[in-house]
Design goal:
10 helices, alpha/beta, 32% helix, 285 residues
Length: 285
């Protein structure tokens, strides 16, 4: 069996075509696993498995401090310890702000009166649907929660190294994005041929170079008269452009209906299979 790789797909901003590429690439391959790690706004399921919300689910939990007022002596050690200001003194009582707590457990450790315990709180969910041609996992951060990284960490424990792994990463250059692409064999950056697309592409590539991540570029909504914006930059920086997805009314119509274009447009399954082979060769160099 050929050695498979894990591939993360990334963009500088939302709406560039990251999910379009991730979904269509996954559907063009065999023995593949798709992980939607854009946990604050997952939408791969709309194209893959619209009923996933009723399928298998698994909670992602975190620990939150709970203060026993009868034991607490208002010494402030827990409040002074917390760098994230998740604890505060109000008169003689310690208040806990769960939304900004990082669940480090330090306040419990430094409390001299053993007045702090920890309770579990659901941070998010993993949803799973095993389809005939695809093993699909989705991470989902609960409403009002801010800590996306633990959900992505939990999602990545589901990676099956015997499969071709495609990870739809959060856009941008923040901590959730870095968590999603870390330890993947290769990253594809999806961009569009516009000044805004070029600006965000440069930002993402700076981050990828900082963490020494191997990558190449795919241009979405490509047009002959504007592709030079991306092509000139990539040529100057020695960056490989592996594929262009054209600016197509038909692709846009299929997207608006939740239909992956690889299922409807002739020849795209072969193009995307070839893309994967090129990525695999680059990753295994």
């Amino acid at each position: 069996m050929a050695e498979e790789i894990s591939l993360s797909i990334l963009s500088g901003k939302g709406g560039t075509g990251k999910t379009t590429l991730a979904v269509n690439l996954a559907l063009a391959l065999e023995n593949v696993q798709l992980l939607d790690a854009d946990v604050e706004e997952p939408n791969d399921y709309l194209f893959i498995s619209p009923e996933i919300e009723s399928k298998e689910t698994e909670s992602v939990m975190r620990l939150i401090p709970e203060v026993n007022d009868d034991k607490c002596t208002a010494c402030r050690k827990c409040v002074d310890f917390c760098e994230y200001n998740a604890l505060a003194m109000m008169l003689d009582n310690v208040m806990v702000f769960e939304e900004v707590c990082h669940s480090c457990g330090g306040c419990k450790i430094v409390c001299p009166e053993d007045a702090i315990t920890e309770k579990e709180k659901e941070l998010g969910k993993l949803r799973h649907d095993s389809l005939s041609n695809l093993d699909f996992w989705q991470g989902e951060l609960n409403t009002k929660e801010e800590k996306a990284v633990p959900v992505i960490e939990k999602l990545k424990t589901k990676i099956d190294r015997d499969k071709k792994v495609v990870i739809d990463s959060p856009p941008g250059t923040t901590c959730p994005t870095i968590e999603a692409i870390t330890d993947t064999d290769f990253t594809i950056v999806v961009t569009e041929p516009s000044p805004f697309g070029l600006h965000d592409l440069k930002m993402v590539i700076e981050m990828l170079n900082d963490i020494s991540q191997s990558f190449a570029v795919v241009i979405n909504r490509a047009e002959a008269d504007s592709d030079y914006l991306i092509e000139d930059y990539c040529q100057a920086e020695g960056i490989k452009i592996m594929l262009k997805i054209p600016f197509s009314r038909k692709i846009a119509e299929l997207y608006s209906e939740g239909i992956p274009f690889v299922n409807k447009l002739e020849g795209w399954d072969e193009k995307l299979q070839q893309l994967y082979q090129e990525i695999r060769e680059e990753a295994l160099k």
